[in-house]
Design goal:
The protein is of the alpha+beta class. 43% of the residues lie in helices and 21% in strands. The chain has one domain (2-89): Arc Repressor Mutant, subunit A (Orthogonal Bundle). The radius of gyration is 13 Å and the shape is globular.
Length: 90
């Protein structure tokens, strides 16, 4: 899976926010707030092509002091949330 083109991460008043830009995302009429960890993953994965929950967990392990099992569970949960709101393509 990968992040759809046209979504950008911005810092608005100290908050990490994803918004849709361009005509391809006209139906995306919301802002998505991300915590710092999710924003880190979004930055690393945007434009990077296909990725999996395992790749996300690897990125978390590079940046944070966390157990692999926890990193993988958190990555899978975040992927499901991103799928649900339409940020990903398979």
């Amino acid at each position: 899976m990968k992040i759809k083109e046209g979504f950008v991460l911005r810092n608005i008043c100290g908050q990490n926010v994803i918004s849709g830009e361009g005509s391809g995302n006209m139906n995306f009429c919301k802002l998505v707030s991300l915590n710092d960890t999710a924003a880190y993953l979004f930055r690393k994965l945007s434009g990077a092509g296909d990725f999996t929950a395992e790749k996300m967990a690897d990125l978390l392990l590079e940046e944070y002091d966390v157990e692999r099992e926890t990193a993988l569970a958190d990555s899978e949960k975040l992927l499901e949330q991103w799928k649900k709101i339409g940020l990903l393509v398979e």
